[in-house]
Design goal:
The structure is a single chain. This protein has 483 residues and is α+β, with helices and mostly antiparallel strands. It is built from twelve helices and 17 strands. It is elongated.
């Protein structure tokens, strides 16, 4: 018995619907009265052995796997909380019904199964013996021709999510983590969420969390720095008397440049950047806050991993050797560069000398215009990859990050630190330049005082209290912890 589809391509939505209707099947029934969720089956019939347990259940879920064994078919369904294997056997169903199922149903479709037996397979997988199947909804494969491009892109993303268990697991992880971050910041630490107005130019163009650029050459460097307009808005709130504020900014992944196009990093095709401002505070307060927040994120990831069936997981959280907790390592960029080159870059007198030092260790730096830029270039290539455990890299040259206050002990350095885990840059913390007389690129003119459409001025109009700022790339962090 063979059931054929119409000649239209399989990704044509009307063609799939026509095939179902030609077989006398309503692909979109009004309702389906299920007996229980799949997780309840595991809890109530976990004792079932190879001999099985007679029962009658109506179960439903999304098809995430179809495997034919001779004339029989194994199917795995997944709902919100769990998954379960089902067996369509020619000894229990008609050959026509099984062929009809295999010809019409695809991964991602929603189906219902009437089962009358639960048993353990030889590999101890709890399995439901199917008596009858019901189509509940075929996955939407494409939209009608007159659909707008924006809606079509959104639907395509939804279809990819439907067919990818790992993507759905990550999506749940993101949602729970963002909720946890907000709850922790607001309930435990007293932060108030303030949303950066979309009218601010840099937010409007998606430059939040932009890649870290070399100021002289415009070349792309590892890591990213906080969007200066979003940072300015948070600082404005501090001036207004809100002493602990934050914003979780969501921007399209491709808005952050080529270095942030890692496939499947974010199931929602967006990047989430956490920015916090606190007064009174300095770099040390912000490093402590990051340690506590990341530890909380790790707990959420661990909970999601434990709740996910072993067959559905990616790299398990437990397999990672990262030592999380408080009191992460603090390492000096200048000191580590000295280890690699033999030179203390705080005493190097000219750019030419710095470039020659870099060349001696096979680092190209002729496009750098400051000694500090050369030191950072050397660190990018020789130091960053070595930072495996969670590490704050401090002692950045002040010329490369003038938004921060100069180090209180050595003016050539900035009170700024980048967080590295597993050799990758996950964000930064710093003491905010709060002196309105400062000629550098510290806190910028308040949002309310700017001319619409213009970039910020280079000097601020009002003084800040002593303040700290952090910028953490949540997506990078979850990609690491969640495998």
């Amino acid at each position: 018995m063979t059931i054929t589809r119409q000649s239209q391509p399989s990704n044509d939505k009307p063609a799939r619907v026509d095939v179902f209707e030609a077989q006398g099947i309503n692909p979109y029934p009004h309702s389906y009265e299920r007996s229980c969720a799949l997780i309840d089956v595991h809890q109530d019939y976990g004792y079932a052995d190879g001999d099985g347990e007679e029962t009658t259940l109506r179960l439903m879920g999304r098809v995430v796997g179809i495997r034919a064994v001779g004339r029989n078919v194994y199917v795995r369904l997944e709902d919100r909380d769990s998954s379960l294997q089902f067996f369509l056997s020619v000894n229990h169903m008609s050959h026509y019904e099984i062929v009809q199922f295999t010809q019409l149903v695809e991964r991602g479709d929603w189906v219902g199964f009437l089962v009358d037996r639960l048993y353990r397979t030889t590999d101890m997988d709890l399995t439901a013996l199917v008596q009858q199947w019901t189509m509940l909804a075929p996955v939407v494969e494409s939209l009608m021709p007159d659909t707008t491009a924006a809606v079509a892109a959104h639907a395509d993303s939804a279809v990819r999510l439907a067919g990818d268990r790992q993507a759905r697991r990550r999506f749940i992880m993101y949602s729970k983590t963002l909720r946890m971050l907000r709850r922790t910041l607001e309930d435990d630490y007293g932060y108030l969420e303030v949303k950066t107005p979309p009218s601010i130019p840099a937010v409007q163009t998606g430059r939040v969390g932009q890649t870290f650029w070399n100021r002289s050459t415009g070349s792309r460097q590892n890591g990213f720095c906080p969007n200066r307009d979003a940072q300015a808005y948070l600082a404005d709130r501090l001036i207004g008397g809100l002493d602990a504020v934050y914003d979780i900014v969501t921007v399209p992944s491709n808005a952050m440049g080529e270095t942030n196009t890692m496939e499947d990093r974010s199931p929602s095709d967006a990047d989430h950047i956490l920015q916090c401002a606190l007064a009174p505070a300095d770099i040390n307060d912000m490093m402590s806050l990051v340690e506590r927040l990341v530890t909380d994120v790790a707990d959420v990831v661990r909970d999601v991993a434990v709740a996910t069936p072993a067959t559905d997981r990616g790299a398990p959280f437990e397999s990672m050797a990262l030592q999380l907790g408080l009191h992460w390592r603090r390492r000096s960029l200048i000191a580590l560069v000295q280890v690699e080159t033999g030179y203390d870059f705080t005493t190097v007198e000219s750019v030419q000398q710095a470039v020659e030092i870099a060349g001696a260790v096979s680092v190209y730096a002729r496009d750098c215009d400051t000694v500090g830029a050369v030191a950072v270039r050397i660190a990018e290539q020789l130091v960053y990859p070595q930072l495996r455990e969670p590490t704050f890299l401090v002692d950045y040259p002040y010329t490369e990050f003038p938004q921060a206050k100069p180090d209180r002990h050595l003016l050539a350095l900035a009170e700024m630190a980048r967080l590295f885990v597993n050799g990758a840059d996950f964000g930064m913390v710093y003491t905010v330049e709060n002196d309105p007389r400062h000629p550098g690129l510290g806190r910028v003119t308040p949002v309310s005082a700017r001319t619409p459409g213009l970039l910020p001025a280079s000097e601020m109009s009002y003084g800040l209290p002593p303040a700290g700022m952090l910028c953490i790339h949540i997506d990078h962090l979850l990609a690491l912890l969640g495998g």
